[in-house]
Amino acid sequence: MKQKPLRDWKARLTLAAVLISIATILTGILYYRGEKRETQEQKHQELHAIAMLKVNQLTQWHRERFSEARFFTVNEPFNTFGNQLLTGDSTNQDEFRASLKHIMTDGRYENVSLLNKRGAVVFSVDLERTSEDPKTVLLAMQAIESGEITVHDFYYCQVHQKVHLKILAPVRNPMGEVIGCQIFLVDPADYLYPLLIEWPTPARTSETIIVRQEGDSVRYLNDLRHLDNSRLQIATALSDTSRLAVKAIMGMTGLFVGTDYSGNEVYGDVTRVPGTPWFMISKIRKDELFQDLRAKSILILIVTVLGLVTVFFSVSWIYQMRQRAIAQELRIRNEELQKSREDIVKLNLDLERQVRERTRELESKVEKLRQNEQEMMQVVDDLNRMTAELSHERNKLEVSNRELEAFSYSVSHDLRAPLRGIDGFTGILLAEYGDQLDEEGQRLCSVIKNNARSMGQLIDDLLAFSRLARHEIVHAKIDMERMFYTIFDEIAGDAEKERISFHIGSLEDCVGDRALIRQVVVNLLSNAIKFTSKTSDPRIEVSCQRNDRLITYYVRDNGAGFDMKYADKLFGVFQRLHTVSDFDGTGVGLANVKRIVTRHGGEVGASGEVNKGAEFWFSLPFQA
Question: Which of 154, 125, 152, 126 is nearest to 141 (CA)?
Fold first, then answer.
């Protein structure tokens, strides 16, 4: 029985050694690949950054030359002097020559000359340049004919035996006619080629090249680092798609692996130079790119071998230590077994004692439970008695409510009859004997009729207020935005619609009793219309705000407002903050609003300022 676990342990140790060895080898391989990938990415970023730097410098240089040529076509003093030279009116050229020499410094231009419409040189900063090569004369004639600034791209001048770049700018007379051409001669060897050759980091094979397409081939325009006298002398056929220069002409941009002009395998970043026919290639030979990686690969191999050797010796040491540990463990186990026998005897005695103590505790708790049960039975009897009493009181309250309702209707009917009589007889009095009454008598009759109507309205409001407590709420989804629009259209007269600026924001729907919520909206909008009746530019605004449980609706106006110290009286029955002579009303409407909103589980409130308006709000749940 003991031999099998020992054999299993040896197998597991051997398996662990093999797995660690495999992991060590895989780690070395993955680390090498990671270093290779990191080297490629790092060099790509370096090549791209250098390419962007060179492109920006080259673009800026090209833009500056164009800007200077454009400046001379519109500059009045230079244009005037150029016209004089072309028409033969000026013989003093020294001043013009001195001015132009200022812009030819720092390798900017090799020479500036002026040709007439026949192609003859009428002025040159370099006195020895009395003529231009035929190609330049032809381009100057084309620039004079088109009236546009043109560029004679890199070309090998047979006259001066060197590479030139020329910018040709037309010269116009005061009538706007082109009468000549100004030529700015650039020697790229002075500034442009050194700019391209310069490399910001130490590198043996790195270089920057600009190329352009010439028919079915690609022309290398600048000095090549590894070929002497190579400017404009090297070209590659477009059919050789392995060359980075051909990839550039084909419109490819980014990092590519290909061959350079010498056929060497290189990594290069290809991009286009904006505003020119040139493409830029920043490249490095592949053997230089991975030169540092070779040393790292040897180091990785050494570390991997050392790791395998360490694993072998570690496994051997663990095996020896394990054997010693097994012998020691067996000795300790025997000692523990003997001690356990003694502990079991002691534990058995202690368990018997604990069982006796636990039994006594349980008997005590059972007795307490019996007492608690008797107390609970007494509480249940008390609850049943109280429930019966509450049911009896509720029945009595329902009877009282029905009697109160009958009384309310009886009082309403008994009060309405004399009120209708007063209103009717007062109307007859005014109709039949109004011409026999003086002005004060007629006024008193009108007061009687108005008070009778107000009393009738008050009775209706009180009855509506008493019915609210008995109205069963039927929950339904309510389109509040539509309700506010509909009710305003119903209760506002044509004159009030023209006078009042009424605005409703985006309102969320709520859940409630449609008839009761309609009473709330009618009351609040009626009050807003009523209390803005004496405002010169009345405005009523409705908006809402939602939290986790409720939606709060706000009705704001700029009417009479109220004093905030009386705000707690607004929602009481018969509470009024304005006299009847100022604004009519019974003082029951806002009490109805509070009772309806409270029954829906919401709240009401208001704020305001005298003669500056008021804001009333009520909150409703957005779900039942």
Answer: 152
Lowest mean pLDDT among 275-279, 477-481, 504-508, 581-585: 581-585
Strand ranges, E, within 490-603: 501-504, 510-512, 539-546, 550-557
CA 623 and chain centroid, separation = 32
Q: Is 143 part of any domain? A: yes
User: What single-letter amino acid sits at 298?
Assistant: I
Q: Is residue 89 part of a domain?
A: yes
Q: With 0.85 as the threshold, say if the pTM is over it.
A: no
Residue 1: per-residue pLDDT: 45
Number of domains, the chain: 2
CATH of the domain at 110: 3.30.450.20
Q: What is the DSSP letter of 290?
A: T
The answer to whether residue 223 sits within a structural domain is no
Domain boundary among 159, 192, 225: 192
Strands 476-478 and 510-512: antiparallel
Q: Which domain holds residue 486?
A: 473-621
Q: How many CB atoms lie within 10 A of CB 455?
A: 17
Digit-coded pLDDT (tens) for 521-576: 888 888 888 878 778 889 999 999 988 778 999 999 988 777 777 667 777 554 55
Residue (of 317, 312, 297) closest to 21 by Cα position: 312
In a domain, 81, yes or no: yes
Evaluate whether 604 touches 618 at the Cβ level (below 8 Å). Answer: yes
User: How many other C-beta atoms are found inside a 10 Å radius of the C-beta of residue 26?
Assistant: 11
- Residue ranges with strand state E in 54-161: 111-116, 121-124, 150-157
